[in-house]
Design a protein that fits this description.
Elements: E1 9-14, E2 29-30, E3 59-64, E4 75-82, H1 86-89, E5 97-104, E6 128-134, H2 140-151, H3 176-185, E7 193-195, H4 202-205, H5 219-231, E8 265-271, H6 276-279, E9 293-299, E10 329-336
Antiparallel strand pairs: 1-6, 1-7, 2-3, 2-6, 3-4, 4-5, 5-10, 7-8, 8-9, 9-10
Helix pairs in contact: 2-3
The protein binds zinc ion (2 copies).
One zinc ion is lined by residues 50, 52-53, 55, 83, 85, 88, 96.
Length: 354
């Protein structure tokens, strides 16, 4: 395994507490209305429409993820949107989930009071704090479950491994990817979110990146890191920490290319199905939301396009006030359905009970 990896952060939905600050864009949340980093430049609602039903998607989750490089990422927020119509989520041809990155070099002062949502804002999902902690190491219970799976004749790879055997049908007729997914979730069954973004490693790109340390803060070290970025293969994205729910809908790494800089997009985070138990009232509705996981891939370089470099499709994207820099960069969100052999939230197994 890599020497550079930080622990995976798990996110949990918690009720708001008195000292929470939901008016701040720095407050990580599930549901509610988005709080924009660029308060004067909200994401236009037509930029977050579901391609299937045409409705503006409500905020699923917002997370504050400042980074050292480039300077524009010193304040950085990810906004994830999802259509609330499960039929749209189940339509393999629909774009029913969307992800945007917003960033700025100067940290704008967070607001202290929630602004009223605009009149055309979609009805929000219920608001929760998104509280994070390190993923626990594999414990005895998980080890025991792995052993039980192995005794059923299912070989489960180490959860940290880049992938589980892709296609093997098992004697018990259950997708081994799904079993590995379940086993990993068992470490912390209430997880609604996984944050996995990390520096790419030699194992990911086939180069020695051992000097490329996330702690670099001098100008020289930043420049060294950037020049290594330039040397990295442009088409290789990191899926090393992905926890796939099934073998359906795995993105082709070659397709994970930033639409702005053409550099690679790496897995940054995943939304887990447990979130649905918090934001959705009726899981038995025929149009209930349902997914195995949502995988969010973002530009490795945190590129900052301007109106001069933006693709035609984004030419209407707003810019930061007084600047030619885009206020929002669309990233890639991939939906994996539940394994056909697995469970559905409409009929939750014991590990998905609240
Ligand atoms: Zn829709
Ligand atoms: Zn980019």
């Amino acid at each position: 395994m890599s020497r550079h990896e930080d622990p995976i952060q798990l996110g949990f939905a918690e009720p708001l507490e008195a000292d929470d600050t939901p008016a701040s864009y720095e407050f990580d949340r599930i549901g509610g209305h988005p709080v924009w980093l660029h308060a004067m430049t909200p994401l236009p609602s037509d930029r977050r429409r579901c391609s299937a039903c045409g409705q503006a998607m409500p905020l699923l989750l917002q997370v504050f993820t400042p980074e050292d490089c480039p300077e524009e990422a010193h304040a950085r927020v990810l906004y994830l949107f999802a259509c609330r119509n499960g039929n749209c989520l189940r339509d393999p041809g629909a774009v029913a989930v969307r992800a945007f990155r917003s960033q700025w070099h100067a940290d704008p002062t967070p607001a202290t009071a929630l602004a009223p949502p605009p009149a055309d804002a979609p009805a929000p999902f219920p608001l929760f704090a998104l509280v994070s902690e390190d993923e626990p190491a594999e414990d005895a219970a998980a080890a025991a479950q792995d052993l039980a799976l192995q005794m059923k004749g299912v070989v489960v790879a180490d959860g940290d491994a880049p992938g589980v055997d892709e296609s093997e049908e098992t004697g018990v007729g259950v997708d081994p990817t799904f079993l590995a997914f379940q086993a990993r979730i068992e470490r912390e069954p209430q997880q609604a979110f996984r944050y996995v973004r990390t520096r790419y490693t030699e194992a990911d790109v086939g180069l020695d990146m051992s000097e490329d340390d996330a702690g670099a803060d001098s100008e020289d070290e930043d420049e060294a890191a950037e020049s290594k970025n330039d040397q990295a293969p442009k088409s290789l994205s990191s899926n090393a920490r992905a926890l796939f729910a099934c073998d359906v809908g795995k993105p082709d790494p070659a397709s994970l290319v930033c639409r702005y800089c053409a550099g690679p997009q790496d897995l940054e985070c995943q939304v887990m199905p447990q979130i649905l138990r918090h934001i959705q009232a009726d899981h038995s509705d025929a149009a209930a939301m349902d997914f195995g996981t949502l995988l969010v891939y973002t530009c490795r370089a945190n590129c900052q396009p301007t109106t001069a470099t933006v693709p035609e499709a984004d030419s209407a994207m707003p810019t930061v006030a007084g600047s030619d820099k885009l206020a929002y960069m669309e990233e890639r969100m991939v939906l994996q359905p539940f394994s056909l052999d697995g469970m559905s939230l409409a009929n939750p197994g014991p590990q998905f009970k609240a």
